């Protein structure tokens, strides 16, 4: 089962298939790094998947509405950035962006795409492969300056100890800076274990076989691309400690416990449907570091 931190901030796992006993000793960070450090073909397929691109664009656009972004002054970290699908949406709105991830495999694709940007944008973006642990010297590895905005798009459910990670991220914010998180709402439909076949993961991650929004295209090519990135159930259990999403109350407690104020959360910003009539609902939440 999941660890104590998991049950503190998200609803209990209810798969009904059994978990194989992941307890306190299971290293979710190492399991995620191993899974996402796959072949270049994996990260390239992920990064070019039209369903993922469409979903991440919508989520990142909603995140941009949560706080003032200034292209002349905002220093930003995109935490758990993966291949940079969300990062590239944020980039025109900030002065500089550091993409952070524990998977060098995903960051290799991040860097490849960054090199293809226009010269002006290319100088504004870089990646750092690091696991944020709150240890001495991390800020220097990230450039030596704290950030005005830190985002995490559809990846927080991969973090085992969320209270600690939230505190670590807040420590890297300037006073008055914002932490903006998009993830899965606990109001989503019950997951059965169909979910294990389609976690098709964006890191900046969505979970979708089929986009519910009316303006989304759902042709066979998109569905075929998603199918190439399926995650087997046993792997899903190894890399996702928070499998039932987060409530507004839990997110507020998590943010305030890390010293954030002015909590705001917009629910149901996006609905995404899997095969098997399994649906998730995405939210975006924001907190500000006290002055």
What does this structure look like?
This protein has 291 residues and is α/β, with parallel strands linked by helices. The chain has one domain (28-187, 230-289): Vaccinia Virus protein VP39 (Rossmann fold, 3-Layer(aba) Sandwich), CATH 3.40.50.150. The chain contains 12 helices and 8 strands. The chain has helices at 4-9, 28-36, 40-48, 50-64, 85-90, 104-115, 119-122, 138-141, 162-171, 220-227, 233-239, 248-257, and strands at 75-79, 96-101, 125-129, 147-153, 173-184, 210-211, 260-273, 279-289. Strands 3-2-1-4-5-8-7-6 form an 8-stranded mixed β-sheet. Helix 5 links the parallel strand 1 (75-79) and strand 2 (96-101). Helix 3 (40-48) crosses helix 6 (104-115). The longest helix is centred in the N-terminal third of the chain and has 15 residues, at 50-64. The protein is globular, with a radius of gyration of 18 Å. The protein starts with a helix and ends with a strand. Mean pLDDT is 77; it is low at 1-8, 10-23 and 189-229.
């Amino acid at each position: 089962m999941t660890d104590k931190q998991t049950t503190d901030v998200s609803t209990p796992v209810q798969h009904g298939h059994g978990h194989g006993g992941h307890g306190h000793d299971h290293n979710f960070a190492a399991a995620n790094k191993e899974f996402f450090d796959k072949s270049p073909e994996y990260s390239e397929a992920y990064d070019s998947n039209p369903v993922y691109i469409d979903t991440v664009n919508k989520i990142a656009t909603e995140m941009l509405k949560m706080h003032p972004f200034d292209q002349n002054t905002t220093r930003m970290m995109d935490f758990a950035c993966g291949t940079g699908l969300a990062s590239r949406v944020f980039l025109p709105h900030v002065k500089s962006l550091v993409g952070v991830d524990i998977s060098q495999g995903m960051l290799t694709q991040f860097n490849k795409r960054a090199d293809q940007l226009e010269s002006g944008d290319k100088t504004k973006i870089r990646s750092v492969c690091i696991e944020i642990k709150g240890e001495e010297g991390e800020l220097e590895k990230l450039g030596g300056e704290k950030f005005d905005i830190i985002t995490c798009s559809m990846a927080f459910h991969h973090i085992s100890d969320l209270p600690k990670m939230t505190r670590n991220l807040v420590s890297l914010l300037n006073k008055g800076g914002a932490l903006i998180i998009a993830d899965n709402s606990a109001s989503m439909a019950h997951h059965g274990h169909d979910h294990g076949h389609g976690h098709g993961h964006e890191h900046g991650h969505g979970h979708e076989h089929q986009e519910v929004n009316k303006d989304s295209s759902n042709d066979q090519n998109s569905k075929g691309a998603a199918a190439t990135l399926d995650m087997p159930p046993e792997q899903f259990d190894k890399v996702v400690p928070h499998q039932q999403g987060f409530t507004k109350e839990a997110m507020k407690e998590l943010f305030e416990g890390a010293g954030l104020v002015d909590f705001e959360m917009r629910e149901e910003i996006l609905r995404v449907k899997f095969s098997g009539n399994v649906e998730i609902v995405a939210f975006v939440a924001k907190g500000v570091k006290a002055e």
